[in-house]
Specification:
The structure is a single chain. This protein is an alpha+beta fold. The protein has helices at 15-19, 50-59; strands at residues 2-5, 24-26, 32-34, 65-68. The strands form 2 sheets. The protein has a two-stranded antiparallel ribbon with strand order 1-4. Strands 2-3 form a two-stranded antiparallel sheet. A hairpin with a 5-residue loop joins strand 2 (24-26) and strand 3 (32-34). Bound molecules: FE3-S4 cluster. Residues 5, 10-16, 32, 60-62, 64-65 line the site of FE3-S4 cluster.
């Protein structure tokens, strides 16, 4: 499972870092980014973090957290 944040739609609400502190951090503008792969969506998320990821996904108010079974190769809209 792979994840990436669409920083064009993130509103810096901060919820994802609370739900999944090992997966999401924030840049200097407060926009979220995936920690495992510098927000490229190329790193397979360990199964131990899948529940946190699902919580973050469901809690994002702007649907900016993307999840897929394949790598995003840096493009959050790859599977939209
Ligand atoms: Fe942004 Fe959604 Fe996280 S708005 S800060 S990606 S919960």
């Amino acid at each position: 499972m792979y994840t990436i944040v669409d920083k064009d739609t993130c509103i810096a609400c901060g919820a994802c870092g609370v739900s999944a502190p090992d997966l999401f951090d924030y840049d200097e503008e407060g926009l979220a980014e995936g920690m495992l792969d510098h927000n490229q969506g190329t790193c397979n998320v360990p199964s131990s973090l899948h529940e946190d990821l699902q919580d973050a996904f469901e809690g994002c108010p702007s649907d900016s957290i993307k999840i897929a079974s394949e790598s995003f190769h840096g493009d959050p809209l790859m599977f939209d």
